Amino acid sequence: MSAPKIVVHGSGGELHEGDEEHHLDVEAGDGNGTTMRSSTQVTAQGRERLVSLDVFRGITVALMIIVDDVGGLIPKISHSPWDGATLADFVFPFFLFVVGISLAFAYKRVSNRVSATKKAVLRAAKLFLLGLLLQGGFFHNIHDLTYGVDIGKIRLMGVLQRIAMAYLVVALCEIWLRDGGEGGIGSGYAIIKKYRCQFLVGLVLTATYTVILYGLPVPDWVYSVTSSDSTMNHFVVKCGVRGHTGPGCNAVGMIDRSIFGIQHLYTRPVYLKTEWCSIDSPNNGPLPSDAAPWCEAPFDPEGLLSSLMAIVTCLVGLQFGHVIIHFKEHDERMVRWSLSALSLLALGFSLDLFGLRMNKSLYSLSYTCVTTGTAGLFFTGIYLLVDVYGYKRPVLPMELMGKHALMIFVLVACNVAPILLQGFYWRVPNNNLLKLIGTGD
To answer: I want to staple 265 with a disulfide (CB 3.0 to 4.6 A). Which of 119, 272, 286, 300 is the partner?
Structure first.
């Protein structure tokens, strides 16, 4: 009996809330004309949906909620204060990776490149603006019933903004930078040849990031902080270095301060949990008496320079999606994914061993390789269990979460749901629904 084959049908460039339509049609038989069902999920249109992609996204959303809610109690799963990687540090690369896979389906067939480009730009702009609204400071603390943001201090970058940038660049690569035709892919060399321009973009982005991070000199800089008693305190950060990857004198922060302005950066950077800035490190705590001068300075973990490597993560996901498009056998797909993922892991750990430390805030090259390689292996395992062996019922909640990932992110991760609940109260603001269910003050 021959194994079922899965043929991917793209969506002609149409992209919806779930980031893609990843449908699969089944061509399966037992050699006697009898049709077999593959392990993928049948839709109302008679097509098949790659369930593992929804499950992967749903698990990522669940991890995001866990590390956000439990990370404060268990520092080892919360974001690393600076160098190193914890469970929380894998969440965002997983999102970027799955966006890349999705784009392989969304732009599998593009009849009009100009029209597809306009749609990609429009979708990226919508996502970027949504990020500005949700993460730019418009919504205040969940225990504060006011809202609004000073445009002069709005945070310009954020999670959704970075995803929008990565989506746009990778979508344009898929629309414009590939050889014509869908046939003729029978080997790894052929797929590299077809998408060689996309690989070149990834190499250029990586080289640009590396040259700037380690080659651009970082001068001394000054910032001001208003204390609780309304006193303006001025700090001078002494740098005058090149290639430094510490919190205060790296090129990532310097570029953001120069281009966006320090008032538009994230005001609660993760390095506040380092031993330089917290007597309770790795937890947030009071500043030590000899705190580093940069401790209270804003720093954006979704900055401009580090977004170059975020785009590379998305590009790697795109190539994993191409494997699904062009190779139909389960074993063939999983072997190619596993080899690619293991190679990335080996490279990433080697770079970290030789001093290029894993760092989420800088989105370092070693961090990119390790998190992307982990995402590749994780996706391969989910694909094996869900789409090959058909274990879909146990992961149904994850599949549903994956189909509505953006909505869950907006409502939960951006505190929109708690803020809405906080707004309903009896007589005084403290008598609200959050307090009734035991989560408010």
So the answer is: 300
